[in-house]
Amino acid sequence: MRLIKKAANGLWLLSLVAVLTACGGNNENEAGSLNEGKDTISISGSTSVGPLAEKLAFNYEENQDVNIEINQIGSSAGITNAISGVSEIGMSSRDLKPEEKESGLDETVIAYDGIVVVVHPSNKVDNLTTEQVKQIFTGKITNWKQLGGDDKEIVVVSREDGSGSRDAFQEIVGYTSGELVKSSIIASGNGNIKTTVATNEHAIGFISFEYIDESISTVKINGVEATAENVLRQKYSLSRPFLFVYKKDHLTDAGQQFIDYILSPEGQAIVSETGAISLH
Amino acid sequence: MRRFKDNLLRGLLWFSALLTVAILVVIVGYIFFKGFRLISLDFIFGDYSPTGGGGIWPMIITTIYTIVISLLIATPIGILAAVYLQEYAKQGRLVKMIRFATESLTGIPSIIYGLFGAVFFVATLKLGMSIIAASLTLTIIVLPVIIRTTEEALKTVPHQYREGSLALGATKLQTLYKVILPSAMPGILSGIILSIGRIVGESAAIFLTAGTVAAMPESIFSSARTLTVHSYLVTQEAGDIELAAAIGIVLIVIILVLNLLATFISKKLNKADY
Amino acid sequence: MASLPIENQTTNNRKSNKKKYFLENVSSKVFLFCALLSVFSLLLIIGFVFYKGSHPFIAEGYSFIDFIFGTDWVPSEDQFGIFPMIVASVYATIGALIIGVPVGLFTAIFLSELAPKSMAKIISPAVQLLAGIPSVLYGVFGLAIIVPFLQNNLGLAKGQSLLAVILVLAIMMLPTIVTVAETAIRAVPKTYREGSLALGASEIGTIFKVVVPAAKSGIMAAIVLGLGRAIGETMAVILVAGNSLIIPTSLTDSMRPLTTNIALEMGYAFGTHQEMLFATGIVLFSFILLLNFVLAKISSRGGN
């Protein structure tokens, strides 16, 4: 009996505490923001830029007294956040659209990145022309046999509409979202494309250079190998910039210093380390 | 004929139960098999490192924060709401409306809660992408679960208990707090366990309200990443099923411990009851 | 007490009664308030989603009919048709129900009625544990095991398919259905069973003709909760659905349910595209409200 009483009492106490907590929530909020001692730089945007930005922030925070929050929510959302001021800096893996530029955004290129067409390691096809890539992704070529491979149906894997990587890829290859073959698998991240292709002999997809590993094999475009060198020599056409976008009046000193750090030789060394292409 | 039908049904019952158990064993087995190599003290208590090889301590802390805060709000409200529905309300339009609302809340996809939370808590109430915004969103998500299970638990309390207590001169409130709630406690606890499961398992709603910052949260007003969001992101972005499975092991162990704890508590209460 | 003068005793009683009534009154108001909070939350969420989602049709001149029956979804080219996703959602949910509900209910019946006590004592908590496993892990499991299995054994070009989604959803709704239904069935008074058995009914007959109907409302709750989990699931589905924008015509087609559409594109969407995702949410909502309405009707008829 005593136990029941204790439990019941506990329950009532809990309700009381909870109601008080719920009501007190807003006041605590103000106190919380007052207590912040460190500068916080909020960054959001592209999932392709994200891993690189996290590594840069990790190294930067070791020596600086700042707190960098990075949210990987996609290029377009990051750009929108930078415009609205929700985030100080937006990350984009595609060029800004005219209407985005008009809203007063500044951009800094922090690195370049290549997009590589990937297939299953067992696939014999290792070179495609831009035209062939276009025909595959628009559903005009549907069997690997047509490209000198095995008699297997082609399974196209693409990113979602609005992804920075997809926008850049489509623009360079020369087809539109409306033309993309409808039965294509839509994967919501670079890693998702990679695992899909790595586990399917029929598949073809495209990923950022940072994600290349031995689980997939890369395809040459017009006979050119997908390497950082070839991107810099402008031989390899599937490349795009990694951008930090911000409004000048939203950018704090801490934010500016972080950008300066990324552009410094030390920052650019980290860029190369992660598989992206440094500016130098 | 009747015996044949009975045996067929009996066989189906056995088969279904075995199937359910087999699925449990296969899933948990696979996750353990795939992820156990990564499990170590450094993995659990280590700070996250974007360069690889780091731990998941910040995500564990974030997960605990979200569980505690949302349950602290949802449990009392949910229990009291269920008490109203079962013990106080006269059957009528109001009760129908409340029931309809609770059931509808259950069916709303978590992604819509996420959208709502992202604009209401994050933007309108200016909480920002934060643990508190995610917790408040989660509160609404688990509220119907707690109401529903508490109601079911209250239904199981025999009528004689209430009548006996009232006949002895206790008020309705005293009856509730000294007789009904204690005997409904095991059922209520199972509702809370389901809720913890839902909170720990939630990804879509948290993803949009707490953000994805992979660092130790400085306060409940910081943006952070729960364990589940982390395992989603490593699967999606890095395609790292081994790491996702390792996080899965941690999640399963957390759930297991909570379950054992709850069973233990409800057993204690049950003993005290008889 | 007995030594007190009679008058004094009555005033004392009156005072404490007043206090009691006051407490009773206040507490019942507090309980009502808590119960109304869920109504308030629902209204807030509905109002919000409808406001956002109806904007393109009211203010921007998009046709709602084209939205529902259009077969092309190309946000970057201003085409918003969700018919393929509606079909995909309906198929996936029905498929998951066909597998998940019978297996779940039968397991619940087994655990509460047939299973030896020692067995139920192990299995019931284990199933509860299964309910706590984050859905993302089901997705990881589906992607790592179910998808390759379908691909290799059915000779498909891709394992991401309607069938994979159905299997993952069915597995995921199982524990919820089992746990809630088991509680409901256990709550059926012993006298029911004894009465039926005494009248000469068999054990199995008693279970299906007396116990299960008596636990109907709880079982309905179990199904609603399980269904809620299946419909609400997005992240696990993203991993195994393939997310293709076609109307599925067979179990092996890859497809994109409504929830997945929202989750997949919300991060990137802004402007009209974002509002159209809210509109997708409205459609989802309407399905769920309709479903709840139907289930409420069924269970109230059962009650009579």
TrEMBL record, chain A:
Signal peptide from the UniProt entry: 1-22
All copies of domain PBP, residue ranges: 37-266
Gene Ontology biological process terms from the UniProt entry: phosphate ion transport
Alphabetized SUPFAM superfamilies for the sequence: Periplasmic binding protein-like II
Membrane topology, from the record: Lipid-anchor
Swiss-Prot/TrEMBL keywords: Cell membrane, Lipoprotein, Membrane, Palmitate, Phosphate transport, Signal, Transport
Locations listed in the record: Cell membrane
PROSITE patterns given in the database record: PROKAR_LIPOPROTEIN
Record keyword Transport present: yes
GO cellular component, one term: plasma membrane
Matches recorded under CDD domains: PBP2_phosphate_like_1
GO molecular function: phosphate ion binding
InterPro entries noted in UniProt: PBP_domain, Phos-bd, Phosphate_ABC_transporter
Pfam families: PBP_like_2
UniProt similarity note: Belongs to the PstS family.
Subunit structure: The complex is composed of two ATP-binding proteins (PstB), two transmembrane proteins (PstC and PstA) and a solute-binding protein (PstS).
Functional description taken from the UniProt entry: Part of the ABC transporter complex PstSACB involved in phosphate import. Involved in the system for phosphate transport across the cytoplasmic membrane.
Record's protein name: Phosphate-binding protein
Organism whose genome encodes this protein: Pseudobacillus wudalianchiensis
TrEMBL record, chain B:
Domain of life where this protein originates: Bacteria
Record's bilayer topology term: Multi-pass membrane protein
Keywords tagged on the record: Cell membrane, Membrane, Transmembrane, Transmembrane helix, Transport
Residues spanning the membrane: 12-33, 56-85, 105-123, 129-147, 179-200, 243-265
Record localization: Cell membrane
Predominant cellular place of this UniProt entry's protein: membrane
One function term, GO molecular function aspect: phosphate transmembrane transporter activity
A single GO BP: phosphate ion transmembrane transport
InterPro entries tied to this protein: MetI-like, MetI-like_sf, Phosphate_PstA
Family statement: Belongs to the binding-protein-dependent transport system permease family. CysTW subfamily.
Name listed for the protein in its UniProt record: Phosphate transport system permease protein PstA
From TrEMBL, chain C:
One biological process term in Gene Ontology: phosphate ion transport
Subcellular location as annotated: Cell membrane
Keyword Transport recorded: yes
Transmembrane segments: 30-51, 82-111, 123-150, 162-185, 219-247, 276-295
Matches recorded under InterPro entries: MetI-like, MetI-like_sf, Phosphate_PstC, Phosphate_Transport_Permease
CDD domains with a match to the protein in the record: TM_PBP2
Primary role: Part of the binding-protein-dependent transport system for phosphate; probably responsible for the translocation of the substrate across the membrane.
Family: Belongs to the binding-protein-dependent transport system permease family. CysTW subfamily.
Name the UniProt record assigns to this protein: Phosphate transport system permease protein
